[in-house]
Fold this protein.
Amino acid sequence: MVDDIAAGILACGAVAWLVWRGFFTPPGSFGSWAMFSHICAYRARLYDVRDGRPVCPWDHELRQDHFSSADALGSLVSYLDEVHGCRVAGEGVLLVPFDQLRIAVRNGRVVRA
């Protein structure tokens, strides 16, 4: 009986420690949940500078690519300019681990707003 109680207490303690290490420690440290700790994503409203027509990023992004970085947005802006001749500008939000940043697309570059 005492052994069962001790085993239960140790098991609960181990689970609590794993949850704490997984969710409440800095990314990259031992036991952190590294699988999702470095996900970045952006949401941006883009428009063509010449005529003000909205440009949907999803018309040019890979369909399965839901999470992209600011560099990926910069690559998309360069792609639209070089391949389609479409100069875009706009604003949006960059979601980074544990924070979000306001961004803007100006002069073919992604900058902090």
Summary: The first strand starts at residue 41 and ends at 48. The radius of gyration is 22 Å.
